[in-house]
Amino acid sequence: MSDDVDLAVVGTGYHTPRVDRLDVLSDQVIAVNTAGVIVDVVPDNGRRAREILATARHVARLAGSERLLPGLIDTHIHAPQWPQLGTGLDLPLEEWLFAYTFPLEARYADEAFADRVWRHMVPALLAHGTTTAVYFSSIHESSTRRLAEVCGELGQRAFVGRVAMDHPQGTPEWYRDVTATTGIDASARSIDDVLRFGADPTRVRPIVTPRFVPACTDELLRGLGDLAASTGQIVQTHCSESDWAHGYVLERFGRTDSEVLEGFGLLRESTVLAHADHLTDDDMDRVRARAAGVAHCPLSNSYFANAVFPLRRALDRGVRVGLGSDVAGGPTVGLLPQCSHAVTVSRMLEDGVDPRRAAGERGVPESRIDTVTAFHVATAGGAELLGIPVGSFEVGRKFDAFSVDLETPGSVLRQWDEVDDEARLFEKIVRVAASSDITNVWVDGRRVAGREVR
Ligand code: GUN
Ligand code: FE
């Protein structure tokens, strides 16, 4: 690894390496080597800073009104549902899948359509500060390969998963793997494709993706567990998302989702369990013991999950948690809004929602989180879940980051010197910043999006 400084970023920033603490990095120089790794974080007034700035190949000096933040890690997003963003949320999950989502996903047999969608989606996500995305693709190998190519080309860090689903009752016959064996074989080929076509196999990686237990036969689930073990790739699936999904698994197996997934070898280190609202305490302990974790999707859960995921409880029990948009079950892009939603739903869980109940019986005490914890989950928490060295500005991590301007003309985001301190500015950015306030986005130390070309 080279210690040559390729990029030096100078300015003030924030990060949240720990779950309940905001660290303000005032007037710092962050030095990044040619491999995209942070090699130094030093105050912008000493000898080392002068050395770095004298030798760095590129220097990005932020304006006084700009702040630097670690890149956002969307741990759960359905790429083929992008054209459905903002629509079709009137039905419960099990009907929504068959009425809207499977018909749309089936269209990705058309690789040209897929390419147009990916080339609209990936730049939009980058512009919102989403430096890492964990994608569910469709069942199609060619469109999935194309998604890896586009992420590779445009510089996003990504896990790209070809969806496997073969259950004759849980899927329509026009959108499924014909047999478990064909599904397992296609998923195995897709892993090789993503590694070959994603430009950089450390940045664009495959992920084994059984859609969820109701869409998969036992044989497919077992085969994909074996595939994860033999390839060493991580796994993602939906888990205990709604009353229906949770109840279906209990009825079919007499066990919870997490037990069933464990039995098929799918509950592994860094397995991403999307939603997981209905995990029991025992499930949480099982997930923690396996070093798997949850993609918390607060807005989507408000539509589909019939309950609020108890984020505070999960964190207190030591479960790894990242944040997810669940596009298009979640109808917003980017993770700053999801941070707000995570805070909001945690408050609703704590207070309860039915005014006819007495205040003391309405909610679940000590459920609330704040913007610092939400941002931790959206950055360092997601990185820990996935086992990737990003998510904060600590030496040794890759430099995935974005900067926000507090003085963008026409924006509601504003710094008021009379009343604002750094903690308030951080909170404002998390709750109020729009993609138009984002000035730079870097992945692996390379600028991949932003407002003006420097
Ligand atoms: N469960 C199975 N498939 C899906 C999906 O596409 N979205 C959500 N939110 N839940 C699912
Ligand atoms: Fe989902």
Question: What would you say this structure looks like, in words?
Answer:
The chain has 454 residues and is α/β, with parallel strands linked by helices. The chain folds into 2 domains: 5-70 and 391-450, Urease, subunit C, domain 1; 72-386, Metal-dependent hydrolases (TIM Barrel, Alpha-Beta Barrel), CATH 3.20.20.140. The protein is built from 14 helices and 18 strands. The strands form 5 sheets. It has a 4-stranded mixed β-sheet. The longest helix is centred in the middle third of the chain and has 18 residues, at 180-197. It is globular and about 65 Å long. The protein starts with a strand and ends with a strand. The mean pLDDT is 97.
Q: How many domains comprise the coordinates? A: 2
Number of contiguous helices: 14
Indicate the low-confidence ranges by residue numbers: none
Q: What distance separates the N and C termini? A: 27 Å
Can you give keywords for this protein?
alpha/beta, 37% helix, 4-stranded antiparallel β-sheet, 454 residues, 4-stranded mixed β-sheet, binds fe (iii) ion, globular, 14 helices, TIM Barrel, binds guanine, Urease, subunit C, domain 1, 2 domains
